[in-house]
Design brief:
With 443 residues, this protein is an alpha+beta fold. It has helices at residues 21-28, 44-63, 77-83, 85-88, 111-121, 167-187, 242-253, 265-269, 295-298, 321-331, 359-374, 388-398, 408-412, 431-436, and strands spanning 32-36, 39-42, 67-68, 74-76, 94-97, 103-106, 130-139, 154-164, 192-196, 206-213, 219-224, 257-259, 276-291, 301-303, 309-311, 313-319, 333-334, 337-338, 349-353, 379-382, 402-406, 415-420, 426-430. Strand 14 (301-303) and strand 15 form a beta hairpin. The protein starts with 20 loop residues before the first helix and ends in a 7-residue tail after the last helix. Bound molecules: 5'-O-(N-(L-cysteinyl)-sulfamoyl)adenosine.
Length: 443
């Protein structure tokens, strides 16, 4: 992609309204644009990251056996009257009336709708377990939308819903998502710590929040230092093996970890001082087991092996891809800009053409782009006529993992300069070597 043909509205000034670094950098790097309080357009650079994050989430959901659907954003109030949540949900719910005077709402979550889908087609325990998920926009009329996409009113959520015959099998479904979440966050370059959490308006008695430690986090959290060193389950984990899943969950829930609402002062006091980690954190995922809270009032039953009809046991599992992007930036940036983990970078490589219009420089940039694109790696070529300093600043700001600098003197010698954004290391490479390495690491 040539920058001259792209849409990358970089801001030179630091936006005053942005209180935290991720919000500032997302605005400055032309990733998002505010449309109204708590609502954002995803500009091309931001959209690429959002798609990459969603793809990783999707791959790990699929690997665990969950099945993707897509439910509408606008829901009928009648479903929520059945569960009793229509009145309970309060002002956070955006209520809408259609032309026939019917009460509708913009979905803040989908427990009722998915329960309705389930009850209309699943009748027997033989079709269980089942886990349906979607990645869809939600709206919550937050009292205080803030920090950009970290706490917005319209935001993207991956929400999965599990259905099981009884409590024991529902626990296995919970463990399956728990393990899928550990893998998902690791692939996003994050260290997420599962913490016992309050269930709020979703309900139920068992719940974990997945928390990224960051000084700008909204929650106060308390955990054992051991979490910082724990190894994430490998890709080969067997999601059909209940014992294997339970063992992983046990390892990850045994050391102390709790959010402020669930904090146990006595258990905390019993920990040796050097093992305590009290910090602030960002909630990037939240999983719930709530049994028959929705299936019972909504009549979502299955016929069990004994021929009796029983309400299904359910859980729900949320991740916020839009919030995650802000969390990744909070965890990975420096004074010059964003430092993307390779797995979610909007482009893999940024090429800086130091003299656009120079036939040799243009040709070398085009060759690099073609070689890497052919190997499935994306390239953004800065072919603008900005000053060199401004081009370097833009590359650092948008945080692509690798930068390749193409100037007339180097090109005359058959060389380019390669910079690794995270370490800042630079090296001069023969062009032939760089082209040969397409498909492998760029340096
Ligand atoms: N139905 C359940 C699980 S599917 C649910 O709604 N859970 S939740 O309320 O905890 O939200 C799930 C995830 O969505 C959160 O962990 C967070 O990552 C994201 N999220 C929630 N509210 C917002 C918001 N206002 N802005 C951005 N992301 C949000």
């Amino acid at each position: 992609m040539q920058l001259s043909r792209y849409f990358l509205p970089i801001l030179k000034e630091t936006p005053k309204e942005a209180e935290i670094v991720s919000h500032r950098l997302m605005l400055r790097a032309g990733m998002i644009r505010q449309q109204a309080a708590g609502s954002y357009t995803w500009l091309p650079l931001g959209k690429r990251v959002l798609d990459k994050v969603s793809r990783i989430i999707r791959e790990e959901q699929d690997r665990s056996g969950a099945i993707e659907i897509l439910m509408p954003t606008i829901q009928s109030a009648d479903l929520w009257r059945e569960s009793g949540r229509y009145d309970d949900y309060g002002k956070e719910m955006l209520r809408i009336e259609d032309r026939h005077g019917r009460d509708m709402l913009f979905g803040p979550t989908n427990e009722e709708m998915v329960t309705d889908i389930f009850r209309s087609s699943v009748k027997t325990y033989k079709d269980l377990p089942l886990n349906l998920y979607h990645i869809q926009w939600k709206f919550r009329d937050e009292v205080r939308p803030r920090f950009g996409v970290m706490r917005s009113r319209e935001f993207l959520m991956k929400d999965a819903y599990s259905f099981d015959l009884d409590y024991e099998s529902a626990r296995v479904s919970y463990d399956r998502m728990f393990v899928a979440y550990l893998r998902t966050f690791e692939r996003l370059g994050l260290k997420a710590i599962p913490m016992r959490a309050d269930t709020g308006p979703i309900g139920g008695e068992l719940s974990h929040e997945f928390i990224i430690l960051a000084s700008t986090g909204e929650s106060e959290v308390f955990c054992h230092r051991d979490y910082l060193e724990m190894a994430t389950p490998a890709a080969g984990v067997d999601f059909q093996n209940a014992e294997e899943l339970a063992a992983i969950v046990k390892t990850w829930t045994t050391p102390y970890a709790a959010t402020e609402e669930m904090h146990d002062e006595a258990a905390w006091a019993a920990l040796p001082e050097g093992e305590k980690l009290a910090a602030r954190g960002i909630e990037v995922g939240h999983i719930f087991h709530f049994g028959t809270k929705y299936s019972e009032p909504m009549g979502a039953t299955v016929t069990g092996p004994d021929g009796k009809d029983v309400p299904v046991h359910m859980g729900s599992y949320g991740i916020g891809p839009s919030r995650l992007i802000a969390a990744i930036i909070e965890a990975s940036h420096d004074e010059n800009g964003i430092i993307w983990p390779e797995s979610v970078a909007p482009f893999d490589i940024g090429v800086v053409n130091m003299r656009p219009g120079d036939a040799e420089c243009d040709r070398v940039c085009a060759d690099i782009e073609a070689a890497y694109e052919a190997a499935g790696r994306s390239v953004l070529v800065d072919d603008s006529d900005q000053r060199a300093g401004s081009k370097f600043a833009t590359m650092d700001l948008i945080g692509l993992p690798w930068q390749v600098i193409v100037g007339p003197r180097g090109v005359a010698n058959g060389e380019v300069e390669v910079k690794h954004r995270a370490s800042g290391e630079r090296s001069v490479k023969p062009l032939a070597e760089l082209l040969a390495a397409a498909g492998g690491p760029a340096a």
